[in-house]
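Section: Multi-chain targets

For targets with more than one molecule, the full set of components is provided together so that the structure can be written out for the assembly as a whole rather than chain by chain. Components appear in the order listed by the source. The example entry contains two components.
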Amino acid sequence: MSLDETVMKPHDRLSAHLAGDMERVNVLIRERMASEHAPRIPEVTAHLVEAGGKRLRPLLTLAAARMCGYDGPYHVHLAATVEFIHTATLLHDDVVDESKQRRGRPTANLLWDNKSSVLVGDYLFSRSFQLMVETGSLRVLDILANASATIAEGEVLQLTAAQDLRTDEDIYLKVVRGKTAALFSAATEVGGVIAGAPEDQVRALFTYGDALGIAFQIVDDLLDYGGATETIGKNVGDDFRERKLTLPVIKAVAKASDEERAFWRRVIEKGDQREGDLEHAMELLARHGAMEGARADALRWSAHAKDALSALPDHPLRTMLSDLADFVVARVS
Amino acid sequence: MSLDETVMKPHDRLSAHLAGDMERVNVLIRERMASEHAPRIPEVTAHLVEAGGKRLRPLLTLAAARMCGYDGPYHVHLAATVEFIHTATLLHDDVVDESKQRRGRPTANLLWDNKSSVLVGDYLFSRSFQLMVETGSLRVLDILANASATIAEGEVLQLTAAQDLRTDEDIYLKVVRGKTAALFSAATEVGGVIAGAPEDQVRALFTYGDALGIAFQIVDDLLDYGGATETIGKNVGDDFRERKLTLPVIKAVAKASDEERAFWRRVIEKGDQREGDLEHAMELLARHGAMEGARADALRWSAHAKDALSALPDHPLRTMLSDLADFVVARVS
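Its structure, encoded as tokens over all components, is:
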């Protein structure tokens, strides 16, 4: 590791270490999002794919495969696959959430229309499907099929669970796996599978991705209620205004008095929000230790991710993945 | 064949002949559309799946497999797969077209919301993906991945091509393959593949499904401009009012005078439709022989489908598939 690398964020170190592979992933992505007859497809996709997303999921796949000694060509296909799946879910999410901005730019549904977002999302799913079939690995296909079902089920579950005060931490975990962790864990697991890694390493890669994704999402929930330990750019209260039952709220609702429960019912279930409600909600989160509880959960998932890595070969990439698990929770720890 | 069967429509004869298999398909469909945690999924899906669709696509898969001597279990999985893909595309289509009715009932996007239609569609795609992985056949996965890409590309193409007077018959065919024929041809082809049929039979099954699907769609276009040779229930002029460039219109535009072209530009491209325009459009279709031309195309595709069947084993199901190709064009011939 160069001196430069030691002061870089773990994600940037992964990017630097895997720059050659990642360039091949980008070439493949551009090649496969082309469509001879439907120019709308590369227009919409490029808007999102070229918008400077962090490419975290493909990096996880590449890192897992390389760490397990893979030197074939198909980790590139799988990295492109997970990025296509991710992009397709973003397109559909923006339609579902009626979002106006993504990565600081207007969303595709705003620039074009909902139709284009739905259909181009479907196109990317089908392209990702073709890419994974090219690897010729039925086990990879099985993992990605199951991840796709978990993602889709989690998204539907979120539709009904997000504003239902009966949502408990078990359901929360299912939603979070659907939203984030299932694609993280599939990304790392298929990297190990394509490399022919031993079973205990494949399991460890799954566990790492799953725990990292959950930690990532809990931190996102915390930041939305101002849980950062340093200044960040994020607006406080977006989830509250969108009436989302995130982990801190679920913890506070579990300990709520009758009066507090009536408050949550009004602001989350009924969506009747008034001046001062956000501040009152944050008071309730503090009163019941909900922020500290969620923070402890995030740190526990991060530690679980790092522990899993001990089953994997000693490798510079393993250190970076471990540092990444620290980095994900750094803003709240 | 019983005496009863000779007076039944070919589709009903297929259903009767394959009733045992089809019952297993229905059991599998109900089992796989269940979701323990997201009850919205079976609600939305049942609304569509149980609504008495004709189940034509799964029947094609079962017929192809049985005709080629298959006696394993996986034709049932593949039949459920194509029905799930079909249902998922209907859910997304209704969002894209802002439809209010499907199979005589309110659409899911109207009963629930667009979000549910998008996400439950995604869920069904992922479930279909799991079902096909269970067959363990990479070739089947390859065929269905390619069909999915053709379907999605055709749908996007239709967004831009449907109201563009430059759309020619080549582009029309691509859109029709995406809308209809790609899933028909994949349905028949995978039936042959899972049965281990010889290559020439697999090719013949693809050709049959492709040609049948194209004939089916051209007939649909004709009926919309009153091309039926007997009375049918369908409203005339829906495609016209929705400004769709269907085959008869494409043929009439290709032969249009400058004045006629201005008319088509106004009513299709600009959507400025007035009293009497539908009647004038139908006059132009008649003037340029566009209805006769499209009718001849439908009959040619139907004949092509029947010809392909000659490569397949002599079998009662082969006769039914041949009769089905006749039946599809019977209303316009």
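Chain B touches chain A through 42 residues (CB under 8 Å).
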